[in-house]
Amino acid sequence: MAASERRLQDRMRLPAERLYEEELEALRKADRGNVPSGWRMSPQSVFTFITGGKAGNTDITPKYIGNKRLVEMAIATLVTDRALLLIGEPGTAKSWLSENLAAAICGDSGLVVQGTAGTSEEHVRYSWNYAMLLANGPTPEAIVRSPIMRAMEAGSIARFEEISRCASEVQDALISILSEKTISVPELGGETSARKGFSIIATANTRDRGVNEMSAALKRRFNIIVLPSPSDIATEVEIVRKRVREIASAYDLQAAVPADEALLKVVTIFRELRGGMTLDRKEKVKSPAGVLSTAEAISLLTNSMALAASFGSGEPTDEDIAAGLQGAVVKDDDKDKLVWKEYLDNVMKKRGAEWRGLYTACKEMNE
Questions:
Q1: pTM higher than 0.85 for the full model?
Q2: Closest CA to 108 of 60, 59, 155
């Protein structure tokens, strides 16, 4: 095995373009559609990569399970000179969709700006290598290009995660980039212009609404697509099952994937607690402070596999799952512990023998 291949296998997480390299190559070979300037495949092939299908004899696994029309709208946006903004609750696969879109369109999903309270305008535009700046003054070699600037030069997709976590002045630095498709470098008396294929996919969390609200001027420069939570329990279970298997394979967890019955129980608990109502609509329940998203359900079940592999028989038990549920639900100790206790006593306890083991394990954890 080559050294480069060993280094890739040692990575904790492969980018989408490496994880699905065979699928992307099969799609490019089978592609008969019109490929836009700067793209690696046609919009139809990008759609197949995201939603699943066939490319010759290769099965293409679905990366996003949900409304396919939303995927079509996202791809169509990126064909034009408009940027794309994906909005949704935590765990609605905004980042996952943006990563896989970038991987399919330009083969590089790693040009990312992570929005936080500490993100500065330099992360959006450029900064300087100050040692070179002091030695030689402002030169092109002294510029430290942001991921967005590198995407413009390469004609690629840049990703801007959690844009509403950034301060307003940082967000506003995007306005001229999205309008003019250039970044001015006054120190050099010039500018960097975007090549064809350049665009930005941004994500925003509805739970962060009001933290740093995007201006109307910036919103106008995006096509906005709202990604909903899974509409029904069957869809959510399928998403959880698929991602748990993928993550377990990536981490080489020496444990069995939780049974479908366990997946269904976890998803049921999450949907009822975040919705404030049992699935049969017969009883209201209080909601905890946390989000209880699909992504958290995936993390919970993956962790239960790690517990089973490291400290059990390799088969996830009710005790392993209960430990994850306790951590997922009880974020604010006093309030959430009471909410969880009421749910256990008023809902889970009454569900019969098939729920008894999980109920008992959860009850012991919450004492």
A1: yes
A2: 155
